[in-house]
């Protein structure tokens, strides 16, 4: 009798969770796969396609099939013939290649210093290295304009030292590269640190004992051992640079075509569905290729050694070397710190541009944003909270299905947003939900869904790690004692997953607050978040209020990231 009840309860458990799994799959299919398939079809047929309508309305379905029957590669052929599109692709590839190489070279000494030396102020430098991550890239770009623009304080100092003109033209390819290098390097730094730590330092000691000098040992032993990790970091930075929208939209001059900017202009300025669709497909393809290469490098190579001996932590020694690496790291970190300082000075300046420092100081810009732009701040918090709640619900159950049931489909679907640039996802969603029956374009709901899809992988990876640590027999005990499936999830699994949920949730909240491309492309006027308000203020020339709003974003992100770090540490101890 008891065994029959257990079997019946297990059947109910499987049935209820089966329905839930179908609902989650439908969410991904409707709001991720359908838009991507739709934008792919548009790129081939040259006209907007209403796929949601085709599923429910025979007349729309007939019109859609007629359009698909006119399938053509003309659009892609024109991509290679249109000098504007082709140059945009080539320029973006050159930009991403240059940034990935520069970041790798920039990070090599710092990564080695963090991993293998007793460099002074190591903990302080590690904390400061997170500063670039808290600044949205378009705010970083504006900071560089304050520093290196025609009236920037750096150029004031340059001319005071008898220099002429400006150090370099900030609104140029060089300016974009410098911003991305100094604000993307943390994405490569810490994986490279891990690569150096994972390699066996005993081989380096053996090399030095055999008479090799420090430089020869580093080039001949240390770098090859850490090579896969370094290459993986380079590919990751390439993908991030290629997909970045915030920096080019601020610093790209009119004569410099970049694919993300062209795609934005095609949809937002010209309503050219064909051109924007083709550029979106190309962006997704390139990003997916390099993301796959990065994963392949990690999976296909190892930087450990089979020696039977414990790994040491030694490296090149010497006070002189440590001091040099400490000074080098300080100089690299000084650039983003000065950028933050420039934004802050601008936020409290009465006027700034005649001299290296502001003409006067005031807090009226903060008073202005809290009185006139409080709605933008509230919008950001509400939208981020909506994305957070939706992410939590979906991520918890996705983690359960992947870890407990081995759901390959959900694991694969939840990873797709990692390879879709924000501007590409926005264009796909706008095109797909621009007509009935799901006419969601221009609504806050679609904006929250876009945020959720874009940032949900962070939540899923956090909750998945926590789920792996929960013993299966805890859930089985709850079911056998009579708890319903959802009661078990709410009272047993949920509380045990809480640290991972909080850490992942804060990360989702932070990244949504900073989100640029989705906000600029999709946010309706009534729901304009802080990032869009800053962007619009910059376009209108309201630089001081834009700076004040930027500081509010930065402070909010720093506080939330510190909270996430504390939660994560509490989870570990």
Automatic annotation (TrEMBL):
Report the InterPro entries cross-referenced here: MetI-like, MetI-like_sf
Q: Which residues cross the membrane?
A: 20-45, 95-115, 127-153, 173-196, 216-238, 270-293, 325-349, 381-403, 410-430, 436-453, 496-523, 543-564
CDD domains with a match to the protein in the record? TM_PBP2 (cd06261)
Signal peptide stretch? none
Q: Name one Pfam family in it.
A: BPD_transp_1
Keyword annotations: Cell inner membrane, Cell membrane, Membrane, Transmembrane, Transmembrane helix, Transport
Where does it live in the cell?
Cell inner membrane; Cell membrane
Q: Where is the ABC transmembrane type-1 domain?
A: 89-294, 377-564
Q: How does it sit in the membrane?
A: Multi-pass membrane protein
Say yes or no: keyword Membrane present: yes
Superkingdom of source: Bacteria
Q: What family does the database annotate?
A: Belongs to the binding-protein-dependent transport system permease family.
What is the protein name stated in its UniProt record?
Answer: ABC transporter permease
The record lists the lineage as: Bacteria, Bacillati, Bacillota, Bacilli, Bacillales
